[in-house]
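Minutes, project check-in
Item: structure for the 313-residue chain
Input as provided by the requester:
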Amino acid sequence: MKTEAKYQYLFGPVPSRRLGLSLGVDLNPLKACTENCVFCQVGRTTELTIERKEWVPTAAVLAEFDRWAAAGHRADYVTLSGSGEPTMHTGFGEVLRHVKASGKFRTALLSNGSLMWLPEVRRDAVLADVVKVTLSAWDEESFRKIHRPAPGATFERLLEGERALREEFRGQLWVEVMLLPGYNDAPEQVQAIAELAKSLKADAVHLNTTTRPALAGVEVPRMPEAWLRTVAEWFSPKAEIPVFSGKAAAPETMTDAALIELLARHPIALEALAASSGAEIAALEKRLAPLVAAGNLAIEEHHGVRMVRVTFA
């Protein structure tokens, strides 16, 4: 008999294209964010705001982490990410301090960068071992077209905040550039982004495109890998095209609720899920079949890649 999911604010660990095996910590309700990006895998932003508050109870998050760690689980990173922008949560620094105090895990903060112009956000962001910020636009118009931000979130503030973070942060700063056909893929547009990215003095630049279904109400095609590899040379340092690494739990050992909870926050390619968990594709499909039949999950082709995602009512 399968039991219910044990955690409300933790998910995974999941195989990450950047962080190996990553335990996600979700500090946002579905879906509160500073942006409503056209490429978002989670879905439309229903609470579009730059307001910072304790969106979910910090004490409950810390208690879940302690319970998870006490059970002897492993992960390469504990990563603040999930249903929205984690720096919206006024307690995200407390979560980073708590995880680091355990002495067992490296920490990562996956941010869109929109609130880094606030000194109090940067003060807490520098506690992470790795901070990933996004730079997929080159001016205010392109920023609004791609990211559809909340009032008060501007491209000027984003760039100002990311540059300031670099000056204050001694850890690994990664910049993710999401390239989207028809939005920011023309040579002159990519070159403009690459020139701005240099000013961030990043330790790594990750060049990405839509690898999971975009669920924000816009059909966004996938950028051909050949073009990604071509323009990667234009960045300094040369942009990387991340691949999945890390080993996830075998799906047959996970409860139905745990699988649904994981995929709600992290849709993934069927092949990647199989490879990371050491499962055969056929066995994985058999494990997921009851959830697909019940209407909880969907397996669908997305630009030639079979994806597994939660179907929301």
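Outcome recorded: Residues 10-246 form a domain with the TIM Barrel fold (CATH 3.20.20.70).
No further action items on this chain.
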